[in-house]
Amino acid sequence: MTIVRYRYRAYPGPGQVQALARAFGCARVGFNDTLRARDEAYAAGERIGDTDVQRRVVTLAKQTPEGFGVTPRGVRAAKVGVLRLAWSRALPSVPSSATVIRQADGRYYVSFVVSFVVDVVDVPFPVVDAEVGLDPGLGRLATLSSGEIVANPRPLRSRHRGLARARRALARRRKESVNRRKAVRRVAVEHRKAREARRDHHHTLAARLVRDSRAVHVEGQRQVAAGRKDGAATPRRAGMVDACGADVRPGPVRAAGRETGTHRGAA
Prior knowledge:
- The chain has helices at 14-43, 50-61, 155-158, 160-172, 178-212, 235-244, 251-263; strands at 2-11, 68-70, 74-77, 81-85, 97-102, 108-116, 131-136, 140-144, 149-151, 215-218.
- By secondary structure, it is α+β, with helices and mostly antiparallel strands.
- It has a six-stranded antiparallel β-sheet with strand order 2-3-4-1-6-5, with no helix packed on it. A four-stranded mixed β-sheet has the order 9-8-7-10.
- Strand 8 (140-144) and strand 9 form a beta hairpin.
- Helix 1 (14-43) runs antiparallel to helix 2 (50-61), helix 4 packs antiparallel against helix 5 (178-212) and helix 5 (178-212) crosses helix 7.
- The longest helix is centred in the last third of the chain and has 35 residues, at 178-212.
- The chain starts with a strand and ends with a helix.
């Protein structure tokens, strides 16, 4: 049994956008109240546990029943209604929880937590005997044991001009203004496009490796020397983020693990 998340694009209506904004605001208030309760307890020399926080803050914040339900159109959320979803794939089982997410670029997503048996796969790949070795890098995204070199598309660097233009426009906008919120969204859109291009390239490579190989052997790398001790960015760190994203693990390795669990029945 494995537990994974399935995320789908959501398309809320105008009234649902307002209801979600109120829900997000209530969540922020509850989070801030929790931090305040812990800080006050720490200053008073009192030890406070999760149960005390639940009784002092969370229980008081819940004034209406909560819950969700999956429908053919989308997901039904309490105090919001039915959120229309783009069902890109079917859920393997009944979800145990659902989280509504609003990204900085204004898009909404719903993330489901589902559990299913790993042996049951959607579309199994044919059985093969070949094995392949993978050496991840920065200048080259990966070098395979067969001699094939996978180029690094550098999606963030390719969008550098558009991202720099959006950041300059953001710097000129007055704080807490409508134009600044629009500029923030434009910067987030540029990052989203780079992130999606990077993820698509990783999964395309991973699907090909998993389909054509029985096992993928990955050479380990030390990621400690990627940045300075004070956390400042370096060219090597920037290249690593461009190739792998926020996670320092090589992107093709992460994608290969997901593809293996989906099509081979074991991760």
